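Q: How would the structure tokens look for this protein?
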Amino acid sequence: MFGASIGRAAQRIIDAIVRWLAIGHINPNILTVIGVSLNVGCGLLFGMGWFFYAGIALIVANLFDMLDGQVARLSGRVTRFGGFLDSSLDRLSDMVVFVGLMVFYARDTPSHSTLNVFLAGAGLMGSVMVSYASARAESLIPKCDVGFLRRPERVVLFIIGALSSYPGSTNFFANRMPAVLWVLAVGSYWTFAHRMYHTWRELTKAEAAKTANVDAEASYAQSGERRAEPRLVTKPS
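A: Here is the predicted structure in token form.
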């Protein structure tokens, strides 16, 4: 009940911001560019080890990422280029965060970890493959958004890892970024495999349905030809 009340209050605030931006004729593409710029700054903060501030920047950046589409719909400015720009810059936003983490864990500091560098790199490649698989699949099938580790889930995990970072703390819930990298690395490839399987299954079903339709049409045509064949009528002598 309490959580639902918070969600409704937050949605009302977001709706008010969207209306204000739409009334002000703010171009949705500008919001998209601001969002990706903040994400680049977030990657820099991660690289410098300022995880908490990177988490705050990530929250604000994804607020802009959420607003651009709603403003475009409310103001009637939905365009194909806007969708392309948003999707393309989302990939960049993902990658700069991963690269920032790779830089941080590769530095000669007490937090140096070759394993975490590897996990961040694996997560980066996996997230790109998840997005590519979806884009490529949707040129063949109507929709391919299956899998539990999509972009919103990745963003939430990054925020959890960033805001839980307290150097020197021995609390179990502190400094969870290494665990987040494990989830991102493994989960991204699991989601990629799931989308590959989903696409194969949907294409197989489509091919089977197409074959069945062709067979049905051929059977119907043959039955029609048989009905149209002339019959010999024997006249009484």
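The two ends are 94 Å apart (CA to CA).

The longest helix spans residues 177-228.

Upvote if useful.
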